[in-house]
Amino acid sequence: MIRWEVLRFLLSNLRWYMENYKFDGFRFDGVTSMIYHDHGLGHGFGGDYPDYYGLGVDTDSLIYLMLANDMLHSLYPGVITIAEVN
């Protein structure tokens, strides 16, 4: 269940850092810990669809990452975004 206030807060933080500190990008670290309910522990990733669209995926985290990436690239076309896995 998406909590809209939290989502707005997180996205506004990204914009605040871009505006005030003139960042050139963001690295989202530990993405596997975010997007999987099992936090990526004891899970092998073969690159098949069930790895990314199964019941173990936290869709709220995926939605946040997609919105963050889209917002940053829309507002700041030259920004670099990186999703770093564990």
Describe this structure in words.
The protein is mostly helical. It has one domain (4-83). The chain has four helices and two strands, in the order H-E-H-H-H-E. Helix 1 runs parallel beside helix 4. 5% of the residues are buried. The model has no long low-confidence stretch (mean pLDDT 89).
Q: Concise description?
A:
The protein is mainly alpha-helical and 86 residues long. The chain has four helices and two strands, in the order H-E-H-H-H-E.
Contiguous uncertain segments of 5+ residues:
none
Q: Please report the number of helical segments.
A: 4
Summed up, the domain count is 1
Distance between the termini: 25 Å
Strand arrangement, largest sheet?
Answer: 1-2
Please trace the helix and strand order, writing H or E for each element. Answer: HEHHHE
Largest sheet: 2 strands, parallel
Please outline the helices and strands.
Blueprint: H1 4-21, E1 25-28, H2 31-35, H3 49-53, H4 59-75, E2 80-83
Parallel strand pairs: 1-2
Helix pairs in contact: 1-4
Q: Tags for this entry?
A:
single chain; 86 residues; mainly alpha; two-stranded parallel sheet; 2 strands
